[in-house]
Every structure is written in C-alpha cells, then in structure tokens.
Amino acid sequence: MNFTEELGILEEEDEFYELSTLELIIWCLLYAIIAAMAIIGNSMVLYITIFRIRVKSITTYFILNLGFADLFTGIFAIPFKFQAALFQEWYLPSCLCHIVPYVETVALTVSVFTLVTSAVHEFRTIFFAKYAQMSEKSAKIWVLLIWFMSITVSIPHGLFHSVHEFENGTVVQCLPVYAEENWWKIYNVYLTIIQYFVPMIILDTAYTMIAVKIWTMSRRIDVDTSNQKLMRVLIIVVACFSLCWFPLETYLLLNEVKPEINEWKYINLLFFFSHWLAMSNSCLNPIIYYVYNEKYSEEYRRIFAKICYFATIRPKVKKIERRWNEKLDKEPETTEQHVPLNGVL
C-alpha cells in the first residue's frame, strides 16, 4: 500500500503540490526519528517488563501486547511505508509489498483491541469489584484472541497487494489487487470503523466514567494512590492514541465515501502529516511510562546510566591501553645480565 493507492489519485502528478528536496529530507528525518524511537523505546519496555519488573499482572500482559505491536510498527511499517508515500515508487523487494501493509494493519488492530480489552478490565475493576475479575489465565487467552482476530481481519491487506509497473517499467508501485472495487471499498470502511471509531467510543466512554469515579473516590482518605496513577497512565495512553490516529482514520474514511477530497492540491501534505502523526504513536507509550510510572522511570535511568558508563569508561580504558602499548614499544630491548656473586666476576 502506498500514497497513490490510499489517496486514489488518478490525475497527473503535476496537479498536486510537489515536495522540494529540502522538504523530502525533512520528512525522511522525521520518519527516521520516530522509527528509531519506536524500536529503541519499545525494546526497552519489553526488556524491563519481562526481565526487570517481572510482575505478572493483568496490566502487564496488556503493556507487553502494546509493546510488541508498536515494535512491529517501528520495524516494518514506518521505515518501509514512508519511502513509498514520499517518493511515489516501490524500491523494495516484491515480497515486502505483501508484508508491510499487512503488518501495519495487524499492529494497529492489536493496539486497538488491547486498549479496548484493558479498558473493559479496568471498568469492571472499578465498578464491579465484588464480582469475579479477570484472572491471569484469562488475560493470556484474551491476548491470544486479540492476535488471532487481528491477523484474521487483516488478511486482505496481505493477500491483495502486488507490485505493478507503470510507464514502460520505469515506475514501480505497490498497489492492491481486487476483483470487485465495491468490495474493497466496503472492507476499508468496515476496517476503519472497527479499528478506530467504534473502539474510541468504547474507550472514551469507559475512561470518562472511570475518571469521574476516581475523582469522586479521591476525596476519601482511604483512596488507593497506586490505582489513581495507573488510571492516569492508561487515560493518557488512550488520549494520545485517539489524537494521533484521528486525522489519518478520518481521511481514510472520507477517501472511501467522498473521494473528491483528493482533488485538493495540498492533499498529499495533509496525508504525510496525518500518516506521520499516526506512526508517531508507536513511540509515545515508552515516554509515557517513563514520565508517569516510577518503576519504569527507575529502570530507564539504570539502563541510561549503564550506557553512559560504557560510553565514557571504555574509551578511557582503551586510551590507557594504547598509551601503555606505545610506551612498551618505545622502550629499548635489554639483554639479560648475570649479577656478580659477592661483587666478584
């Protein structure tokens, strides 16, 4: 999937705003930054959660699920997708034309379903504490179910994409291949609704009620402060997700139901910004954990301290070793001499 396919543009390229070389460089840097932050940040979150904190709770499984989904986005979707959108040509191997749109769709669906499941769990914990809560076994089953549903509903994006050559083979693009145009349009509208708009209604409703409940409980002396902090982190995660994905999901929906929006001259700039903002969400969760979670913040500082230690100490050690070796090389070789016995030869 690339910019041409998503915008549905069939007109000549000179009718739309063309990016200058400087603008292309800026966009490349912006995409490279969020890709690096997503890969490094989510790798640290997964390492800290699995090997350092080691707390087996319901929320832990959801954090791991979000971490894996965002990591896949940083590895597969961001680095490969942006070049097709910016340069309007597919320079990558043909097999990636199936993998990139599929992984991006799966990662987004996993993130959304994980947030919804987490919201339902927290809602039940706050409002129906007397009833049986989700167990660790149930959380694992839900995680597997989330991946199964995400992989299933995203299959068309992996199957119905192929590399096409235009203009006598000089331009190669990754485009969807479908027998019925109306079917593809219905599928994209359906996917946009279940990936964003319906989940956002559930998330916003659930966390609004949770926030009101916690604010009411905060007036009591026996309120659990850790519960408040957890809710605050989850609400911020959902808010960032909603804001980051809203422009792109709105455009994708309008692109199917009102394709004339693509006739606007600067629609490509709007798409670049919307897509970059959506992709940037994959690197925000590690930052949120660092700012609002004491355990993650402590582990982050520990990792950064180790990195700084090795970055400063190792060069110094190597420098000392190099000086010592140079000193040994400069010293003249001495022949072995026998010490006279009692001063007499």
From TrEMBL:
Segments passing through the bilayer: 24-48, 60-79, 99-120, 141-160, 193-212, 233-254, 266-292
InterPro entries (alphabetical): GPCR_Rhodpsn, GPCR_Rhodpsn_7TM
Compartment(s) of residence: Membrane
Keyword Transmembrane helix listed: yes
One annotated Gene Ontology cellular component of this protein: plasma membrane
Every G-protein coupled receptors family 1 profile domain range: 41-289
Single GO MF annotation: G protein-coupled receptor activity
The keyword Secreted is assigned to this record: no
Domain of life assignment: Eukaryota
The entry's keywords: G-protein coupled receptor, Membrane, Receptor, Transducer, Transmembrane, Transmembrane helix
Membrane topology of this protein: Multi-pass membrane protein
SUPFAM superfamilies linked: Family A G protein-coupled receptor-like (SSF81321)
PANTHER family: LEUCOKININ RECEPTOR (PTHR45695:SF9), LEUCOKININ RECEPTOR-RELATED (PTHR45695)
Protein name, UniProt field: G-protein coupled receptors family 1 profile domain-containing protein
Species: Caenorhabditis angaria
